[in-house]
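Sample entry (224 residues):
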Amino acid sequence: MAFYFPCPVISFMRCSVKSYNFIFPNIVITNNDIRDLLKEIALNNSEKAYKSLFMAMNENLINFARAILKSSEDAEEVVSDFFIVIWLKRKTLLAIENPKLYFYIGVKNGSLNKLKSVKRQKLPSGEEWQTSIRSVFFNPEELLLSSELVKKLMKAINDLPPKCKTIFKLVKEDGLKYADVGKLLDISIKTVEAQMAIAVRRIKTHSEFKNEFPELHSILSKKN
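Predicted structure, serialized as tokens:
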């Protein structure tokens, strides 16, 4: 699928987004990485940094918006609009204390406003979001895992209850901290911890993982 780069001052370019098949590790951009890029954008009007930020965060943000909107087209529009605002307000970017959380909250609000604009009577709760885990959160090659075992693991994760899976995805795939997930979803850290514990318990009880993947528990239990 191709996306148009949303910056209003850059010639539109097509970005080819590769579809992974659960056997490649997810590369998570850190808050420090985002801050460095935002600094370049804010101080130097850096189009290169803006492109790098877009490419690093676009897909995860679209997946997050899609979970709320249940529409790829609407999700892409919300994220594109958000990035345009980022560019237009670039001189204020240095004031953002927690940029990753800022991006996710911005996309969440944009998605909910999108639903309000089409006059839906009830906004979806976290339990109704249709989240899907699309990439692994560790390097399977380092652990000598077969693609078949990784696929079984991803199925086990995607079979989690909706709210539990959303929280697991935000922590493990998107790299948000427990406290940030709590703020994003308007729930307590204790709730995030409890849902993560449920996810870990459900996933590690699969019999094939106990023998073929003994490192699973420590990987799942590791906090960001």
